[in-house]
Amino acid sequence: MSYQSADQKKEEFRKYLEKSGVIAAMTKSFVALFEEPTKPENPLDFVIKFLDPAAMTGQEAEALKKELEELKAQNSQLQASLSAQNQEPEAPSS
Asked: Distance (Å, rounded) from C-alpha 58 to C-alpha 67?
């Protein structure tokens, strides 16, 4: 009896995914991946990007984090330089 119940649950879930368009979207993403002339290094990132073009891949996120840290360091250096310039006494005018 529970075996039939499990099959019914699976079928209901499949219908739910089909009705909501998930199966079609995943199929399209897999077809696009299959037809890609140069296979991406990370297929999961490809599928995520295909399903949501605004989504960021893990590599892109890491690159942005690295750039953020570099810019924070550069900002700190520039602020320190500006602060040092503001503290220097001005040379007398001629």
From this structure: 14
